[in-house]
Amino acid sequence: MTVLTGILIGLATGVVFGFVLEKARVFEPGVIVGQMQLRSFIMLKMFLTAVITGLVVLAVLNGAFGVPLHLKPLVWQADIIGGLILGAGIALAGACPGTALAQLGAGYRDAIFIVLGGIAGAVFYGYFDERITAFFAEKGARLSFDQLAGLPFWMVALGTAVVLALFLVVLERMTPWRGEIGENVDGVPPEHGIEDAASTRAPHHA
Amino acid sequence: MPSLGDKAWSPYVAGLIVGLLQIPTFLLMNTALGASSSFVTVGAHLASVVDPQVAQIKYFASHMAGAKNWWQVAVVVGIAIGAFLSMTLSGARRPAVSAVWARAMGVTSFSARAPIAFLAGFAMLFGARIAGGCTSGHGISGIAQLSIGSTVAVVAMFAGGMLVANLFFKRI
């Protein structure tokens, strides 16, 4: 494939991705912070729906048509330490690496600095890649849950999709997404929480 | 039915569409959806302007050329374009800085937010490159492939995010 074809497919994919990220408000710092403080669950709902759809899509593509999967290796220390640092960054950015670009497109100007910081972080890693990988010294087998269970991928994928879907049904019943989105569709709840806190404090000042 | 001019869609509709994007990605590009390695591709080319040795470093060299690397750069550029289109159609204009930062961190000005945003971006991509993927590659794609490594990485991401948001942010 030529680089140009790849770029055109990428642009088409990205425009759809960015469009629905904006519509679901999952690029909103208020939605990400709300998720991490377990106050709202819009991010988890979209994330798990994308996972469920992916599980069904890949169960068909891999199970019926033999399309190969692209598993990342299991490297315990790198996955945990890298994941923790990435997660801390996600909370502070109010974005993921991909949604930072959606923030930029939607008009949050501080996202320029998230993207520039991201490029700097990626380059910094690149210079130390050899030393970091040598430090962890993990071989990293490409392990998956279906291999662990000794069952075909499509079977475990569809089973997992059903379990996750049931979880989302319960979650949505407990906390509907419309109630989490905020008046200004930015995931930030109204201020009355603060007034409540002030009124409960009031007697101490009296 | 969701319309293109809506300010907000159900997260389930949006998640379904993102999941379907795995079809063209696996069939046409022979890879899974991801976002974070594009930062290496762009960063390596920018770094090569000041450091001609960059292309000699294996990690950078493997991210600098080829359809797959530029495909992912195009994906993240497309994300910005798609978000801009959606925002324009709905008129959900955003301020320079989200209102959440005043509530959670007491940060009200752009100049106070900018350095935090830079450090946040740095941590995100440094961590993502250690773990070998982000919320897209490990999250949306890795878990959909039942990868154990990706599941471990995603649990760590949420743990890291929840630690910071609950220890250092004001509860909203």
Give a brief rundown of this model.
Chain A is built from nine helices and no strands. By secondary structure, chain A is mainly alpha-helical. Chain A has helices at residues 3-24, 29-36, 42-65, 76-93, 97-106, 111-136, 145-149, 153-174, 192-205.
State the secondary-structure class of chain B: mainly alpha
SS summary, helix count of chain B: 9
Order of helices and strands of chain B: HHHHHHHHH
User: What percentage of amino acids of chain B are in beta strands?
Assistant: under 5%
Low-confidence stretches of chain A: 197-206
Rg of chain B from C-alpha positions?
18 Å
Overall geometry of chain A: globular
Helix content of chain A: over 70%
Counted beta strands of chain A: 0
The rounded distance between the terminal residues' Cα atoms of chain B is 32 Å
Secondary-structure element pattern of chain A, one letter each = HHHHHHHHH
What characterizes the major β-sheet of chain A?
none
Please state the structural category of chain A. mainly alpha
How would you describe this structure to a colleague?
The complex is a heterodimer of chains A (206) and B (172). Chain A has 206 residues and is mostly helical. Chain A contains nine helices and no strands. Chain A starts with a helix and ends with a helix. In chain B, 70% of the residues lie in helices and 0% in strands. The mean pLDDT of chain B is 97. Chain B is built from nine helices and no strands. By secondary structure, chain B is mainly alpha-helical. In chain B, helix 3 packs across helix 4, helix 3 crosses helix 5 and helix 8 crosses helix 9. At the A-B interface, helix 1, helix 2, helix 3, helix 4 and helix 5 of A face helix 1, helix 2, helix 3, helix 4 and helix 5 of B.
Please give a handful of descriptors for the protein shown.
heterodimer; A: 206 residues; mainly alpha; B: 172 residues; globular
